[in-house]
Design a protein that fits this description.
alpha+beta; ibrinogen binding protein from staphylococcus aureus fold; 6-stranded antiparallel β-sheet; 24 helices; about 35% helix; about 20% strand; flat; ribosomal large subunit binding; Nuclear export mediator factor NEMF homolog; nucleus
């Protein structure tokens, strides 16, 4: 397969691409370290010029995948070439070197593209001083390709062919039998394709050889005429545009149906249809540039087609090998039977001779003769003409055998019987001639039975092989169609997952991607999540709808930020934080330079609780449009139901904890308890709402409503008659207090991930010290009274548990408890303070509450979301990103039509409802092995359908492993069996 330009291709391309002269450079991109795209523009005319070091240059209409962050060489070209006009495009001498000049005079810059050997791209200034070079190296002793060196133009060739006298000398020095093309090619600049063409045109056969097809004395004038014809072809290419031709090869399918056509694989591209290619299939294009673009653009698709074709051929070859193996086995068994039968017949007909040979050898062994002495004795007997000794050809005394050369003694009289050929036969010295013949007859009988069994099992074996081959062909076809349909999403170049509530979360793999994510993909309404750890990824939660991002999604994004940091290798539990998009800036107020991937955060950081280092690897499936509706609300926000009755949230009895002050008593009067979902009434019967501010990392409950997310199935109960507080929550984790960094707010943690931020009003601050003393005195009295009132004793094990809780929560003093009660009590000052501080609150407008809902709903920390003034008037519908995310599901059902599978690495809690998932924790296993093991787990699952198996097999191992964070331990049911 042709992959690079020759001199004739370069000449035709330069002639055609003169139309680009005068266009300005709009931007420069890099596809990989060798291939670069230069986007050119002139008024409304646009085009993209592709430069690949060592191989090709042409314009392209194909959408090539660009690198996420530009390379250093791209940045250097952008710096010097952007907005410069392409002034000239020419070939250096007659070499495979192209000079592109951008700008004029002292502002001129040159790109030198070398298309020979390993190739190179060099950026120079107007004096041809090298500013940057793709591949620095040294040619010979003097020529150096490095920055600040002069580019050596003088080494380029200046002629297409040497003089005629020199050609005569080259031919005369050639050895007889050498290929004429091979001799001429190093001395000519035409290229092998053009040389073949002109030689065929002149009447020489393809692959012409010296002194065989080419006579030096007679055919030299014809050769010179052919080379002049090649020179004329080059001169025409400089003046006229050339057509393009892609030469193809017909690849027949192994099982060709009437509907299926043969595959035509592209093998070469040329500016003209050469004589040697006229009998091959080809595609013609208006210009050579279009042909080259088509050739390289379809190369990947062609590779997929040819790979699938080769897999089909291999499967059918295996089936054919099974058939051949069975046939060969039957033939071998037949031959074995025939040989054993003949050996037995010969032994029977030479019975006396065989018995005498056995007796002679047994006598020698009985006399305790050594084996060398027996050999000497045998040679002496053979020299005397002893017929018994003459029949013994070899001694195999180590196996107690001898080899006799036996022939048919009745050959002349047995004309009707089949001919018995003389042969060497091994005779066992432990048995008589008759017993040896019997042994060979038994072997013949055993081979006959084996042949019969082979014939009987042949049908079953072939059917099994055919079934397996059909299954393989079906899988190959399915995987090939999946790879054709596979759409690579834009976010797959980053770390990514879709949260439990259908938010797209992306994170950078390195500093360049962190920079790109913030600059290109962080939009108004999105949230930025990060962790104060080395190597932590910059994570962005995409929020196209403009709604408040739920706490569960924030917690999952925080887990992702921590997992892709040094915390994973160190196995350290840490926390992350989040800010609004308008708090992230690249400019520092002091004018300090921020490195790539670093950003300035303005205002308050909202810290998330420490997260566990538990990630998961799962698979999502792309649904056909008709199946999307079945999974409409699969990842929706789960919140409390407004219509449910007060206090109906279920609480597990075994997850109830009590928080006490100085006392060990854990009893409370049930009559004095109130729940968070209740509302207080003052003396006038007015309904008051407690001012409670919640952090967004509070998880959503399993019930649903149309309002904002609230506390997760949590009842917080307080005893208003005494100083002790009894809190009933859905977790047994510790209760902590932290102080806000920038605002005077008190944060009370109900468990590691259930914080309540309480903002006290002025009145509560003044009365705190006065009430503290009375609370302590009242505590001692109520302790004794409570013990007398409630005869129930703590349950078994509860006392020790409460002792541990008391030790954990000893830092929670009376002031904190008082503030918590103050925030939840029915007070008229709550609404007044709320109105006063509305404009002072830096975190933006509060969440809207529905009136008369019958519940108190805590407000999360506010996220600054810009809403257009005309948002209510015009509904633009769901964002395209949401539609795209809805097409992916982790819970496929039998009725779904699935197009392809996408591997996803996410916090394990996100993947709980997925059909295919494994748990990843920090460990010692390599990512590639973990990916293969996970895929084996999924394929062995009995619930896996055949279509899902095909989709999973179509995913490459490197695609599965690329997002796994470092060394891992993989956990799944019965995984040890699969590893074994």
């Amino acid at each position: 397969m042709k992959t690079r330009f020759n001199t004739y291709d370069i000449l035709c391309s330069i002639t055609e691409l003169q139309r680009l002269v005068g266009m300005r450079v709009n931007q420069v991109y890099d596809i990989d370290h060798r291939t670069y795209l230069v986007r050119l523009q002139r008024s409304e005319e646009k085009c993209v010029l592709l430069l690949e070091s060592g191989n090709r240059f042409h314009t392209t209409a194909f959408e090539w995948p660009k690198n996420v962050a530009p390379s250093g060489f791209s940045m250097k070209m952008r710096k010097h070439l952007k907005n410069k006009r392409l002034e000239s495009l020419k070939q250096v001498g007659v070499d495979r070197i192209i000079d592109l000049q951008f700008g004029s005079g002292e502002a001129a810059y040159h790109i030198i593209l070398e298309l020979y050997d390993r190739g190179n791209i060099v950026l120079t200034d107007y004096e041809m001083t090298i500013l940057n070079v793709l591949r620095p190296h040294t040619e010979g002793d003097k020529i150096r390709f490095a920055v600040r060196e002069k580019y050596p133009f003088g080494r380029a060739h200046t002629r297409n062919m040497p003089p005629v006298e020199e050609i005569y000398e080259i031919i005369n020095k050639a050895k007889p039998g050498e290929s004429l093309k091979k001799i001429l090619n190093p001395h000519l600049e035409f290229g092998s394709a053009v040389i073949d063409h002109v030689l065929l045109k002149s009447g020489f056969p393809l692959g012409c050889k010296i002194n065989k097809d080419f006579n030096v004395s007679e055919d030299m004038p014809k050769l010179i005429s052919a080379l002049e014809n090649a020179n004329q072809i080059f001169n025409n290419a400089k003046q006229n545009l050339s057509k393009g031709y892609i030469i193809q090869r017909r690849e027949a399918k192994p099982l060709q149906n009437e509907k299926e056509e043969c595959i035509f694989a592209n093998i070469e591209f040329h500016p003209m249809l050469f004589e040697q290619h006229k009998d091959q299939p080809y595609k013609e294009f208006e210009t050579f540039d279009l042909a080259v673009d088509e050739y390289f653009s379809t190369m990947e698709g062609q590779k997929l087609d040819l790979k699938a074709l080769q897999q089909e051929r291999d499967a059918l070859k295996k089936l054919e090998n099974v058939r051949k193996d069975h046939d060969q086995r039957l033939i071998s068994l037949e031959k074995t039977q025939e040989v054993d039968k003949q050996k037995a017949e010969l032994i029977t007909r030479n019975q006396r001779l065989v018995d005498n040979a056995i007796l002679a050898m047994q006598s020698a062994l009985a006399n305790q003769m050594s084996w060398p002495d027996i050999q000497v004795l045998l040679k002496e007997a053979q020299s005397r003409g002893d017929p018994v000794a003459g029949a013994i050809k070899q001694l195999k005394l180590e196996t107690n055998n001898i080899s006799l050369f036996l022939s048919n003694p009745y050959e002349d009289s047995d004309e009707e019987e089949p001919e018995l050929k003389p042969m060497m036969i091994d005779i066992d010295l432990a048995h008589s001639a008759f017993a040896n013949a019997q042994r060979y007859y038994n072997q013949k009988r055993s081979a006959s039975k084996k042949q019969q069994k082979t014939i009987e099992s042949q049908g079953k074996a072939l059917k099994s092989a055919e079934k397996k081959t059909k299954q393989t062909l079906k899988e190959v076809k399915a995987i090939h169609s999946i790879n054709k349909l596979r759409k690579v999403y834009w976010f797959e170049k980053f770390y990514w997952f879709i949260s439990s509530e259908n938010y797209l979360v992306i994170g950078g793999r390195d500093q360049q991607q962190n920079e790109l994510i913030v600059k290109r993909y962080l939009r108004s309404g999105d949230l930025y999540v990060h962790a104060d750890l080395t190597g932590a990824s910059s994570v962005v939660i995409k929020n196209p709808t403009g709604d408040v991002v739920p706490p569960k999604t924030l917690a999952e994004a925080g887990t992702m930020a921590v997992a892709y940091s040094v915390a994973w290798e160190a196995k350290v539990v840490a926390g992350a934080w989040w800010v609004n998009s308008d708090q992230v800036s690249k400019s520092a107020p002091t004018g300090e330079y921020l490195t790539t991937g670093s950003f300035m955060i303005r205002g308050k950081k909202n810290y998330l609780p420490p997260c566990q280092l538990v990630m998961g690897l799962g698979f999502m499936f792309r649904l056909e449009d008709g199946s999307v509706e079945r999974h409409k609300d699969e990842r929706k926000i789960r919140i409390l139901d407004e219509d449910s009755e007060i206090g109906e949230a279920p609480v597990d009895s075994d997850k109830e904890i009590e928080l006490e002050g100085e006392s060990d008593d854990n009893d409370e009067d049930a009559e004095d308890k109130i729940t968070l979902s209740q509302i207080d009434e003052n003396e006038d019967g007015e309904v008051k709402e407690a001012e409670v501010k919640s952090n967004p990392q509070i998880e959503s409950s399993d019930s649903e409503t149309n309002d904002k997310p609230q506390f997760p199935d949590t009842q917080i109960k307080f005893d208003l008659s005494g100083p002790r507080i009894k809190v009933q929550v859905d977790t047994t984790q510790s209760l902590k207090k932290i102080e806000s960094q920038e605002e005077e707010e008190n944060v009370v943690y109900l468990g590691d991930d259930k914080p309540i931020i309480v903002k006290p009003n002025d009145k509560s601050k003044k009365n705190t010290n006065q009430e503290k003393d009375s609370i302590q005195k009242q505590d001692a009295r109520n302790e004794k009274e409570t013990k007398q009132k409630d005869p129930n004793l703590p349950k078994r094990g509860q006392k020790a548990r409460l002792k541990k809780i008391k030790e954990k929560y000893k830092d929670q003093d009376e002031e904190d408890r008082r503030l918590l009660m103050e925030a939840l009590k029915s007070a008229g000052t709550a609404k007044e303070d709320k109105r006063k501080n509305k404009n002072k609150d830096p975190s933006g407008p509060k969440q809207n509450k529905k009136k008369g809902s019958g519940q108190i709903k805590p407000n999360p920390i506010q996220q600054n979301i810009r809403v257009d003034d005309n948002a209510e008037e015009e509904d633009v519908g769901p964002a395209p990103e949401i539609d795209m995310l809805n097409q992916l599901t982790g819970k496929p059902i039998a009725e779904d039509e699935l197009l392809f599978a996408v591997p996803v690495v996410a916090p394990y809690n996100t993947l709980l409802n997925y059909k295919y998932k494994v748990k990843l924790t920090p460990g010692t296993g390599k990512r590639g092995k973990a990916a293969k093991t996970a895929l084996a787990v999924f394929l062995r699952d009995k619930a896996t359908t055949s279509r899902e198996k095909d989709l999973l097999k179509a995913v490459k191992d490197e695609t599965i492993a690329r997002n796994i964070p470092g060394k891992v331990k993989i956990s799944a049911p019965q995984i040890q069996k699969i590893k074994k």
